[in-house]
Amino acid sequence: MDIYGQKGSTDSGGVPDHLDSGLQIVFVGFNPSLISGETGHHYANPRNNFWRILYQSGLTPRLYDPSEDGELLKLGYGFTNIVARPTKGIDDLTRKDYKEGREILKAKLLNYRPRVVCFVGKGVYKEYSRRNKVEWGFQPEPFLEGMHEFVAPSSSGLVRMPMKEIVGIYGRLTEAVSERDHI
């Protein structure tokens, strides 16, 4: 398997990237949780709201289970992380992890060129872009030319933002991808 973590790769510490050319959206997280590392599926912690957010925002036609993460390629959605190594939390990640992960992520995105890169959390985007000021939604000056970058709230159960507000932000992404010419 190559450095890009192609379909079925377990280069990312037991959680394969789900990437392909021509995707509508690639979701980028910080790194897999320990539960995701054990199961081999993205956003597998039962306290993580990712799959509920996708469904409630209209990005998916039904509520998917983490074990079905690879099935979302059929919807045009892919998954990867800025750091591949599963940890208990982001506090266990090092500057070196981010530096290496940033370069690998950039290479993946340039190789697969999705229409939209959705960063699941402001912190993920800040680590990737090295920018301090970040607003929710589409970024006015993408880090990588030719790709739309969307910053969405983290789906972690630890996030204090009301679920309705989180779903509303993801809903903006739903509207944009359903209006293909808009983005």
From TrEMBL:
Keywords on record: DNA damage, DNA repair, Hydrolase
Domain of life: Bacteria
Domain Uracil-DNA glycosylase-like as annotated: residue spans: 17-163
InterPro entries with a match to the protein in the record: MUG/TDG (IPR015637), Uracil-DNA_glycosylase-like (IPR005122), Uracil-DNA_glycosylase-like_sf (IPR036895)
Keyword Cytoplasm: no
Keyword Transferase part of the UniProt annotation: no
Listed name of the protein: Uracil-DNA glycosylase-like domain-containing protein
